[in-house]
Every structure is written in C-alpha cells, then in structure tokens.
Amino acid sequence: MDKFTFELERFSWRHRQKKDMFVAKTRMAALIDSVVVKECYPQSKTFLTGSTLTYLGFHKSDLDLCIFVDPTLGNNCLIQKDKAKYRPHLVKIQKRFVAKFGDIIESTKIITATVPILRIYLNPDYDDLEIDISLHNVPGILNTKLLHYYSSYDIRFSQLAIIVKAWMKTYEFNDSRNGFFNSYSISLMVLHYLQCGITPPILPNLLKLKGSFFDFNNLDNTFFQPIKINPLIEVNKQPISELLISFFDYYTKVDFNKYGISIEKGALFKLDTKHRDPIFIEEPFEKMNTARCMRRRNWKHYVIPMMENTLDSLLEGNNFELKINNHPIKITF
User: 262 in helix, strand or coil?
Assistant: First the structure.
C-alpha cells in the first residue's frame, strides 16, 4: 500500500462515526421515542435516518429522526406545498422535549424548509449534539436505507464520501444555505462516480437489482437485514488514492449543462431544455434535484475551479490539505 493511500484511509477511519457514538445516538433516539414522542403520540413510530445509519458522516454528525405521528398527515414529499399542518405536531414535540430535557438543551427552533424540521441543540456535556426531527418523511427513510446498503457493499464508498465531504467543508462548499451543496448531494455525487465514473464500476445499481427492498411499502424492513447481491463480473481494485484523484477528474469533465445524474438509472441522462440548475442530481425516489440549492455562480466560479486546482495539485504530488473543525490537516504522498 502506498503512503498516500494509507494516509487517506487513516484519515477516513479517524473521522468517521465510531461505534461508541453510534451506540450513544441509538440510545438517545430510543429515549426520545419513549419519553417524548410516545407520550405525545402513543401510536407513533420513530425511524433513525441520516449519517447515523449510512456511515457517511463524521464522528459528531447530527442525529436525524423521522417520526410518524398521525396517519392522516400522509407521507411528506418534496413537492408537497401544504407544510403548515406539520408545524403544530413539531411544536407539540418541541414543548415536550423542553419539559423533559430542558437542563441539557442549549436551544431549539423549527425550520420551515422543504421538509419542516425541529432542530434541537444539546449543551457541551452532550458533545453539542444536534438533533433534527422531521415528520412523515418517507423519502428520507428510503434514502437512508439505500445509502446504508451501498456503504455496506464496499468500504471505499464511505471512505471516499468522508474525504470528499471534508474537502467540501474545507472550502465551505458543504453549505446549502449559502448556495452550495448539502451533505446528501455530496454522498450521491460519490455514489454516482463509483457507479459510472470508473471502469469497472465499484458499486452496482441496487435499485435495479433489489428495487422492491427499497419500496415505499417496505419501510419496516430492518436496515441490518442481509440482502443477496451477485458480485460484479469485473472487480475494481483501485485504491482510495487513485479514486480520489479520478473523482476530481470526472467532475471537471462532465458537461452538466447537458447531463444530469440519475442514481435510479445508474447513469448520466440528457437534460431537457427547461433545465436551469448548474448541476442536476436526481433524488432516487422523488426525482427532484437534490442540488437545487447550488447557485450557478458558485458552481462556475468556485467549485469547479477548486476541483481543477486540487486535481492539478494532486497530480503534481503535492500535499492534500483539509480542515476539520478549523484545524488544518496535511495528507502527504
């Protein structure tokens, strides 16, 4: 193993979610469900979502929960316009949470986003953990399930996702509120690249091979149930160092004015003439653009040039420089 590969693997291992944090999050989720949610809604069901289960986040990433409180609310979706009916339920959970755990809470707020969220910030004694609670967000559950099984298929997916997210954070590109990417879009970029950007591919198309397992009517299947996938005919043995360099090369060469990314198809697809976003990453279940927050100016003048600069620097054998919590890290060749 070359030194650069070793250093990248060590970086991803050091900064990924550890088992003790996973256990702490699952215990916190169970406590919230029993002490807060079930007392408000006895027939409710709580799902863990996000990086806690996908293994694509950092050690202190958020705790994401999706709660089904009332069958009459239906299934939340990205094109839904009537978000007001969710707010009273989020307020009810917010008040109960504060009443039960007020001594460990730093602050709370309800965010009226595409999917309304109750955000709870715990105090430093609980590692400043951030908890995001959404309601009836079926696509969020299915996306978590899909990414969980992709992470389980090949460790290089989670390794590369953590490294690319760290690179995005270093240059403040992981910031949807300011017109850049959200973490989910970055994960899908890495997934697409490992399906379509290299030959032979590393990841198969799970939606094509096991579509019913990721169906809206199959939510209750455990995330840890093994699924049998025939191995790819050709095995890609490229190390994470080569994959990282090739990732930047791939994304600086694709014409995203003409093509979008489809995880469902496992391919690029031609965009229609009405497309206006600088990059289109199709959400696997609702088909919306997960990168719709990316502003064209940011993509053209910041993200792409920095990808090109990073690619040139790596090809010249220079250090790969990142920042974690504002602490500079140099990964050397």
Answer: strand
